[in-house]
Amino acid sequence: QVQLAESGGGSVQVGGSLRLSCVASGTSAFDTMGWYRQAPGKQRDLVATITNSGSINYGESVKGRFTISRDNTENTVYLRMNSLEPEDTGVYYCYAQWTDDTFGDRYAKYGQGTQVTVSS
Fold it and tell me: 62-88, pLDDT tens digit by residue?
């Protein structure tokens, strides 16, 4: 069974930085991996995704401040967050897609989430 283990959330002041990590396990390789976030009372939105070939997509509000990367050998995706703003507060969910080795079906899953709080 695929598991996503997130770490690195916490509380930081405006302008600070955090680094999130997510280790994926349970299958041999993952396709797209990334991060979504959900602020209180709002829908879950894209933060950033990265394919296994390195193509990256960022949400508009984080461009220029956040950097996503991954280590395919460790099935780990990272999110470096700089210049954090109060609007970045929310639960950050790791996301991973994979293809079933036997039948070729595609699946996706979110992690349990890690809280990021940015205070002024």
Answer: 999 999 999 999 999 999 999 999 999
Going from the C-alpha of 84 to that of each of 42, 73, 119, the distances in angstroms are 19, 29, 9
Please give the sequence-ordered ranges of beta strands (E in DSSP) within 1-120, or none if there are none.
3-7, 10-13, 18-25, 33-38, 44-50, 56-58, 66-71, 76-81, 90-99, 106-110, 114-119
- Taking the C-alpha atoms of residue 4 and residue 34, their distance in angstroms, rounded to an integer, is 11
Cα–Cα distance measured from residue 105 to residue 9, given in angstroms and rounded to the nearest whole number: 32
The per-residue pLDDT of the chain, averaged, comes to: 96
